[in-house]
Amino acid sequence: MGRALITDLYELTMAASYLRRDMTASATFSLYVRGLPSDRGFLVAAGIDDCLDYLETFQFDDQDLAWLAHHGFPLETVDAFRDLRFTGDVEAVEEGRVVLAGEPLIEVTAPLPEAQLVETYLLNQVTFQTAIATKATRCRLAAGPIELVDFALRRAHGTEAGMAVARLSAIAGFAGTSNVEAARQLGLAASGTMAHSYVQAFPTEADAFRAFAEDLPPPYTFLVDTYDTLSGVETAARVVAALGLTDRVAIRLDSGDVGELARAARDILDQRGLSYVHIFVSGSLDEYLLEDLASSGTPIDAAGVGTRFGTVADAPYVDSVYKLVELGGCPVMKLSPGKETLPGAKQVWRTEGCRDVLARRSEAAPGAAEGLLVPVLRGGRRLRGRSTVAQARARVERDLAWLPAAARRIRTPEVPELLQSAALKELAASTRAAAEGGVPVVHDA
User: Fold this and answer.
1) Which of 194, 225, 271, 284 is the residue whose CA sits 20 to 30 A from 237?
2) Pairing relation of β-strands 176-177 and 278-281?
């Protein structure tokens, strides 16, 4: 099945008009985030590889074309769509790079109809995955020594989203996922415990714990809060001791004040010579609660992070946009109040001293600065394969080390300043003056 119709209708109608009028000059669109959500000092770019897969395989299949013809698109437009492929060039940041608001994540340069048609899909992938990757990274920063496991699948907004969440959690440094298919596809550690229904299905908690240990290989994680939590810990301790379990054994706390309960549970386990039994917690956790637990020294070894992480409950989207910045070799800009854009193809130079410089793409690097945007597609074909989880994870780690500590704070972070080069400021000033003066822009064919 084709994916060309996974778009907004106006992308198709604009492209149809461009094609009818032979408006096929080279256009550059820049995809970036206007501003950071609350309590964010940075973003982690994600979804880039899925965008590149889409661009490389973009086409209208027969079912797409039949639908368009049936819904009033002229036959000449349908025929033009039949032959249309993405033939452009793309510069992008690599999956897992830490970025700031205003910095392009992707810049597409292609004939105008092609560059216009792909807008919606690119925004969809980058918006969702960047929000998730950023949330996951914040959870990992907040948790300190506590290992994290992705528990988001059952609350994610669809199974496709759940698969992406599992991958992005691994990129952020989570130790495993409950999503078995994601674990299979991506080579991640599959992690799980038991449900309250399992405990309720047996006459007693002890019967349930004993059956679990007898029927399955380790690891063994006993859910102790179905009835009375601390009584459940006592029961689990007796079963562990009676069966002589020593290989990867844990209890799980899933309700109540998990910090207070974890301290009490640790005391019970230690008093019974079970200091090797780990404590796993879950239940509406996010980076704020994780930070509180970690900073207070609560004896927690691992945590399952689900609903608030997989839905990015506190900031469920980023304000991403895809804007035309150059057409036919001429810079263009939007002057709408509060939504003004900067003209021209760009580069982001990452410099020492925790400073990024937004510049014209044609400018030379300032000193030993690193360019964040790299060539990823030429003539509609990828220049490199998809990033592995390990490669993207290494980029996150490297860039977090570059960020100032104040930007990594979970609460009230300080956002690093994004500088603009003198040449970009000059281009913006001249383009603005021309637009305000009503000077027509001549575009190459």
Assistant:
1) 284
2) unpaired
Residue 445 reports pLDDT greater than 50: no
> Which CATH fold topology does 9-132+315-436 show?
nicotinate phosphoribosyltransferase (3.20.140)
- Collapsing DSSP to helix, strand or coil, 247 comes out as coil
Decide: 301 and 250 in contact? Cβ < 8 Å. yes
Q: Is the pLDDT confidence value at 438 over 80?
A: no
Who's near 155: CB < 8 A, 6+ residues apart? 306, 307, 310, 311
| pLDDT tens string 76-90 | 999 999 999 999 999
Which amino acid would we find at residue 288? Y
Report the amino acid identity of residue 174: F
For the cut 50, the answer to whether the pLDDT of residue 98 exceeds it is: yes
Does the N-terminal peptide bond of residue 219 adopt cis geometry, omega within 30 degrees of 0?
yes
Q: How many whole angstroms separate alpha carbon 357 and alpha carbon 362? A: 14
Of residues 440 and 268, more confidence is placed in 268
In DSSP terms, which residues pair with 30 in a beta bridge?
Answer: 107, 323
Across the range 380-397, mean pLDDT stands at 97
Task: Give yes or no for a contact between 135 and 57, defined as CB atoms under 8 angstroms apart.
Answer: no
Q: Is 193 helix (H, G, I), strand (E, B) or coil?
A: coil
Q: Residue 288: pLDDT above 90?
A: yes
Locate the domains of the chain by residue range: 9-132+315-436, 193-281
* Tokens 């404590």 sit on residue: 279
d(C-alpha 209, C-alpha 212), whole Å? 5
CATH architecture of 193-281: Alpha-Beta Barrel (3.20)
The strand pair at 278-281 and 249-253 is best described as parallel
Helix pair 205-215, 229-243: axis angle to 10 deg: 40
Of 97, 9, 87, 6, nearest in space to 48 by CA = 97
pLDDT in tens, 1-29: 679 999 999 999 999 999 999 999 999 99
